[in-house]
Design goal:
Strand content of chain B: under 5%
Oligomer: heterodimer
Shape of chain B: globular
Chain lengths: 180, 348
């Protein structure tokens, strides 16, 4: 039950990242999604993996507060297609994770699939660096989460690597990109 | 355990970087080439060295982000799109390969992995947009020949271990199909497009078509063809492209003997490495399904007009650049006449 709630929280956070354009909205979405993913990772790969996800996510969310458009900007005008995307992605992932596929760890399957899909879609639909790098951080963490599917004892290394990527991506600012 | 083909391709990428540094024109910044190119080689080595499929995806994501933020003429979002789409598709492909469920999931996995590979390398249907004035280190054309080969070798090998037998067959068939599309489209576009920079890019795409066909053919000769073709991309086409980038533009384009020889190398005619790769590929196709060899042979004719045009784009190389072109041609002749060391190094 806890895992199912955590999976929902991960989707909710990823959806906020999809729906937000401001730095506070992006940081909040990343933090919510990472909280859900950390709980799912705890069950799937153990405390080291969960700690890595949580730490990487917190660093990424903190970094996101430093740069980007000010304010929240959650669901600005014209964001209806994004809202539809979030709901459709959740329904599709839920159907695949709970009905079409079998075996334990349905919340893990749902979380991995929906966060990979939403963060990839966010990169395709955005052009501001803060949004792009927030989505990339979530994508990295979700890829590590997917490594736990179908494995009895996944190693924490992918989670650690993903946390480093997410943390660093969160601190890349437009100034860094321009200076390079 | 490290994959021998990937290790060989990392070494080839390092050799291509050494060529770029040694034979770049004086105007180019060697320090920048060495620094940023060195990071690229390390990133490619990381893709090859990580032991898990997801580790490879994370290494690709990190390399893609680094490649995107080092600057360039294209918008950041456009630069990031290729690697992120690749990681997303490959991640979903691996997801479908790992879950238990109906057989159709395995087919979805194969589709995701092939599409992700195409997006990661930057071939059809996921061509990365190019800007003719893009600096060398952030160019998607250089990515095709520098990071792409290692990525393809690693992804194909790991994908085949992820997929069950039936889906691995579908994966190979899709690679061949995608390869044929790239052969035809790349060959025709390299010949017919107006811009020289775009023509060079499509010539890489056409070569990649043959590589994908080789990787998709499950017989040993197919794998051998792919590795020799990748050699000819990394140490043949890429260095010649670098020379052509800095060649002075001539008002009247004339074909000199050196341009004809370069065109022959680019077209994969004997005795260059591309010829050996094509022979191996045709042999592999004949072993598996002979009509495919006829289609491939017809597609290979498309290289001729495009290569003549690209050969002329080098102009008359002088000084250091002439030495570079001679060296590239000599290496490719040696590899074409005696490709065994390349195959042995890859354990093929």
């Amino acid at each position: 039950m806890v895992d199912a709630v955590a999976a929902f929280v991960a989707w909710l956070g990823a959806s906020v990242v999809v729906l937000a354009d401001g730095r506070r909205g992006l940081a909040l979405g990343a933090a919510i999604s990472v909280a859900g993913m950390a709980v799912v990772a705890l069950d799937a790969a153990g405390p080291e993996a969960a700690a890595s996800v949580a730490l990487g996510g917190v660093v990424a969310a903190a970094g996101r507060l430093r740069s980007g458009r000010g304010g929240w900007h959650i669901m600005p005008a014209g964001s209806t297609p994004r809202l539809v995307l979030c709901i459709a992605a959740a329904l599709l992932a839920l159907w695949i994770a709970a009905a079409l596929t079998t075996g334990p760890a349905a919340p893990l399957r749902f979380t991995a699939m929906v966060v990979i899909g939403l963060s990839g879609a966010r990169v395709l639909g955005a052009d501001e660096p803060p949004i792009l790098f927030t989505a990339i951080g979530l994508l990295a963490l979700a890829i590590a989460l997917a490594a736990g599917i179908g494995q009895i004892a996944p190693t924490p290394w992918p989670f650690l690597a993903a946390a480093v990527i997410a943390g660093l991506a969160g601190w890349i600012s437009p100034r860094t990109v321009a200076a390079a | 355990m490290l994959q021998p083909e990937a290790v060989e391709l990392v070494i080839l990428a390092a050799a291509a970087l050494a060529f770029a540094v040694a034979f770049s024109p004086p105007a180019a910044s060697r320090r920048e080439l060495l620094g940023k190119g060195g990071v690229g080689v390390v990133g490619a080595a990381a893709i090859a060295a990580v032991p898990t499929f997801e580790g490879t995806l994370l290494a690709l994501l990190a390399l893609g982000v680094l490649h995107s933020i080092i600057g360039g003429k294209r918008p950041l979002a456009v630069r990031l799109r290729g690697p992120v789409v690749a990681v997303t598709l490959l991640g979903l492909g691996a997801f479908f390969a790992r879950v238990q469920g109906p057989e159709v999931m395995e087919r979805f996995a194969a589709v995701g992995l092939v599409a992700g590979l195409a997006a990661g390398v930057g071939v059809l249907p996921y061509l990365h947009p190019i800007d003719p004035d893009e600096p060398l280190v952030s160019s998607p054309v250089v990515w095709l020949a520098f990071a792409g080969p290692v990525l393809a070798a690693v992804i194909v090998q790991r994908a085949q271990s992820l997929l069950p037998v039936d889906a691995a067959g579908a994966f190979g068939a899709m690679l061949i199909g995608l390869g044929l599309i790239n052969v035809v489209w790349g060959g025709a576009a390299a010949w017919l497009t107006e811009s020289e920079a775009v023509a060079w890019r499509y010539s890489f795409v056409a070569d990649w078509g043959l590589v994908l066909c080789g990787l998709g053919l499950i017989v040993a000769d197919g794998q051998r063809a792919a590795i020799v073709m990748l050699f000819s991309i990394v140490l043949g086409r890429l260095p010649l492209y670098l020379v052509a980038l800095h060649a002075p533009h001539e008002k009247v384009v004339t074909g000199r003997p050196v341009n004809l020889v370069v065109a022959a190398a680019l077209a994969g005619s004997a005795p260059f490495a591309g010829f050996a790769a094509r022979l191996l590929l045709l042999r592999a196709a004949t072993q598996l399904f002979w009509p495919l060899a006829i289609v491939l042979a017809a597609g290979m004719l498309l290289w001729l007009p495009g290569s003549l045009r690209l050969g002329r784009s080098l102009g008359l190389p002088k000084g250091r650049q002439a030495v570079g072109v001679a060296l590239v041609l000599a290496v490719n002749v040696a590899a074409g006449l005696y490709p065994l060391p390349i195959l042995l190094a890859a354990h093929l």
